[in-house]
User: Fold this.
Amino acid sequence: MQEESQEFSDNEKLMEEVKRFQKMIKNNHFEYFDVSETEEIADYFLDCGKIILAKKAVDNGLDIHPSATALQIRKAKLLLLDKKTEECLKIIQNIEDMESTNSDIYLIKGCALISRQDKIKEAIEAFEKAILYNKENTDELLYEISMTLIQIKEEDKASEFLHRAFKINPENEQVIYEIAFLCEKHKKYEKSIYYYNLCLDVNPFNAPIWYNIGINYSALKNEEKALESYDFAIALADDFEEAYFNKANILSNSNNFEEAISCYKDFISINGNNDDAFCYLAECYLHLNKPNDAFLNYLEALKINNKNFNAWY
Assistant:
């Protein structure tokens, strides 16, 4: 209770400072904010996605406290968001010697260098320093670095960082999910299923994970397990249209046309603008020797998309 009271008090104080800062900007007059207050105000605006106000807070703080490294770090971070990498790196280089064990500096430096193809090795070295000097939640930092590497298609290196994060915290669902996703992307379907199941150990009621497991089982031609996985996804989210669609396709390909028809109809009840679904539904009716029903569904497909070749054919 005491911790909750302290947190509430801190949040209340922060909001007062934020309002005071906004009033200062609106009225264009000077107010004094110390470094700590400026940090909190800038971070608040960053978290809210109010980048312009975050910039104003940092610039105002640096006008008052030009040598404050904490504010210079935030300035560098904002320049990085604006893709002004050279300006960002210039600030980082100026403060690196003074804050040589600050994890944030090396994370920003790595993110700035990573945008240049000839600086990947240096970026990785900076990331390693960020990890070395990081004091808490290292799995989250490793995850953040891996996401940066994935953005530039360095997936093998990203996978290394993700596995290090997994070793530190085997229950970090984001980390496990990304490992599973990369395995799936590189057609390592059995490994992908293994990691997706670890996600389910953390949260067994995650419908998208069940759906992804279904996709991997489909790739392995294990229709029974795929159907089971899609059924779990649907049970957890009865409007999960992709699960209905994939399940219907498996049933149709397995010649279970009656069940497939029911499943396609469930899909259409959620998404009635998919012309392919009406075509697949029509094909099921054709297999059951119901040409009139098939014809009506081909017409529905053409109402949605009159260029659907399969429906015209």
Observations:
- The CA atoms of residues 194 and 220 lie 13 Å apart.
